[in-house]
Amino acid sequence: MALVFLPIFFLDGLSGSFFRPLAISYVLAVLASLGVALTLTPALSLLMLPRAANRERAEAPLARWLKRGYRRSLPAFINKPRMAAATMILLFTLTAVAVPLMGEEFLPNFKETDFLMHWVEKPGTSLEAMRRITIRVSKELRDIPGVRNFGSHIGRAEVADEVVGPNFTELWISIAPDVPYEPTVARIQSVVDGYPGLVRDLLTYLKERIKEVLTGAGASIVVRVYGPDLEGLRTKAAEVGKTMSGVEGVANLKVEQQVLVPQIEVQLKPDAAARFGLTPGDVRRATTTLIKGQKVGELYQEQQINDVVVWGAANTRTDIESLRSLRINLPAGGDAPLGDVADVRIAPAPNVIQREGASRRIDVTCDVKGRDLGSVAREIEDKVKALSFDRGYHPEFLGEYAARQESKNRLLALSAFALLGILLLLHADFRSPRLVALVAVSLPFALVGGVAAALITGGVLSLGSLVGFVTVLGIAARNGIMLVSHYRHLETEEGQPFGKDLVLRGSEERLAPILMTALATGLALLPIVVGGNKPGHEIEHPLAVVILGGLATSTILNLFLMPGLYLRFGKRRQDEVDEVR
User: Fold this and answer.
1) How far apart are CA 435 and CA 426, in angstroms?
2) Which of 4, 30, 35, 291 fits a 20 to 30 Å CA distance from 86?
3) Could you give the CA distance from residue 381 to residue 391 in angstroms, rounded to a whole number?
4) What is 111-209's CATH number?
5) Which run of H or E residues covers position 124?
6) Average pLDDT, integer, range 27-53
7) What CATH architecture applies to the domain 3-107+409-580?
8) 47: number of CA atoms within 13 Å, CB side?
9) Beta strand pairing status for 260-268 and 342-350?
10) How far apart are CA 218 and CA 137, in angstroms?
């Protein structure tokens, strides 16, 4: 059971943050249970059951009824081991066919009551315009029944954690926990959608944080296009956006805004500057000081530090002719107009240039609506890869699906090592490759029910579902071990010859313990499954569904298929018997 959780310990990033505490808690609980079983339980049995060995105890009516039905039905499976094997192969095949048809998600939609909305206008939009539209939407949102409060901020300062202009607003709203969740969110979404032309979204706080941690963008799927030339990069990003718009399920599609804004451009005249004895650095420093300003000191007053900046006059900085007339000091003395040594003009320039890994890039982002994340992400990846990219340009696929695939691959790779450890542990006890193989065959019994349960509850596999599959493998192994160990005990310790009678007796004697442990585990998970995907259970619900479904099938298939398989393949060779002796 501890080895089964080993892969979860090594999950990194967001996946590890969500599921590693679960693994730690479970393993600690198993170890504590082991300590109690080896120490406290024997002592309590000695104290509380002193005369149990001398007293005949009647079996419980339910146990007698179950054993009677099991005794009548089991021979039909034992007498036809080929049918049992064929049934097992058929179930595994159906499961393998169903898995690719299921949807894929990274993490579920968290049903929080606090929401954050990005409200982005075109670059250059004035602060007054953003304030006006923010006040308007605040009135509409506060009129919705169940909305408790509203807040916003427009832009961010240069020293903030996320520097943005006045065209960027964040809106915050909270809804009461006792109002209908889905209808209230739908009404909020309808108000948000009533502002076309804006880049906008509606996310819970946790969902927004997850997306930004993964990619730096508040979207589920991010196609990051790299390239050396800005014009070519904008053209290629627009082409990628057009391609993505044709994919069903794509919502809130946007190409990262990069518009041309007016900017002062100072182009040096090398020959003229040389005649005046000026270097390019002299012209750049003087121009920067006059137009942008330069810090030359600090003023300490009343425990406050204020920068002292040399800067050109305001009316000079905003007039192109005044800029050309600015005087620049010459090395030999005197001064010269800036227009004599450089061309000064207003030129279009990008409002922002994003770089990563020494390469310029533009993000094309979208969310998913009406389809599962995996199918949309794969279709987008196929279509974008089919586009032609010139040398120096290439796309990179990021977001929740990429994080899910990375966590999935890591989980499966580590699960293979955990499975190997389990098999080695079993071999150290059984000392028979045949018996180890029989227990290994029983492990996929749990996958059948896990997949069936996931299909019944929506047919979408999240990362929580994958963790559930890993977890339920340990439960399936336990059921198989209980049966095979008891068969071996009857043969080696009680001297019963290998055969049909041994299998029937061993299966019947293990029926109650297997059902009891399965029911104890299932009843613990039942409230989470029955409660549904309600707020607070978004992570545990898909995990519990998979474990409960896998627990049911592993228990049934172990009880009815394992006896026939053991009778057919469980007889040990003489060398294995000698080794045990």
Assistant:
1) 9
2) 4
3) 19
4) 3.30.70.100
5) none
6) 85
7) Up-down Bundle (1.20)
8) 6
9) antiparallel
10) 21
Q: What is the CATH number of domain 261-350?
A: 3.30.2090.10
Under a CB-based contact definition with an 8 Å cutoff, are residues 250 and 376 in contact? yes
Residue 350 CA to residue 311 CA, distance in Å, equals 25
Assess whether pLDDT exceeds 80 at residue 335.
Answer: yes
Closest alpha carbon to 484 in 436, 556, 446: 436
Residue that has been written with the tokens 């061309």 in this structure: 343
Which residue from 320, 324, 319, 322 is spatially nearest to 339, judged by alpha carbons?
324
The DSSP bridge pattern shows strands 114-120 and 203-204 to be antiparallel
Per-position b or e across 35-44, b if 16+ CB within 10 A of its CB: eeeeeeeeee
498-511 in b/e form (b: 16+ CB < 10 A) is beeebbbbbbbebb
Residues 196, 572: Cα–Cα separation, whole Å: 74
By percentage, how much of the chain surpasses pLDDT 70?
A: 95
Res. 54 pLDDT band, cuts 50 70 90? low
Is 570 or 138 the better-scoring residue by pLDDT? Answer: 138
| CATH class of the domain comprising 219-257+351-408 | alpha beta
Q: Do domains 111-209 and 219-257+351-408 have the same CATH topology?
A: yes
* Whether the Cβ atoms of residue 231 and residue 248 lie closer than 8 Å to each other: no
Which residues partner with 268 through β-bridges? 342
Under DSSP, the state recorded for 39 is I
In DSSP notation, 251-265 reads EEEEEPP--EEEEEE
Q: What is the spatial distance between Cα 315 and Cα 320, in angstroms, rounded to a whole number?
A: 10
* CA dihedral over 110, 111, 112, 117, signed as positive or negative: positive
Confidence of residue 215 (pLDDT cuts 50, 70, 90): low
Nearest Cα neighbor of 441 from 347, 569, 321, 290 is 569
Compute the distance between CA of residue 130 and CA of residue 327 in angstroms, rounded to an integer: 39
Q: Token digits for 296?
A: 């030359």
Parallel, antiparallel, or unpaired for β 304-310 and 460-461? Answer: unpaired
Query: Which residue ranges make up each domain of the chain?
Result: 3-107+409-580, 111-209, 219-257+351-408, 261-350
467-485: burial string, b at 16+ Cβ within 10 Å, e else:
bbbbbbbbbbbbbbbbbbb
Q: How far apart are CA 77 and CA 272, in angstroms?
A: 100
Going by C-alpha positions, the residue among 476, 448, 462, 457 that lies closest to residue 545 is 457
Which DSSP letter does residue 430 get? H
Contact 264, 344 (CB under 8 A): yes
Q: Which residue type, as a one-letter code, is found at position 274?
A: A
**SS3 labels along 57-106:** CCCCHHHHHHHHHHHHHHHHHHCCHHHHHHHHHHHHHHHHHHHHHCEECC
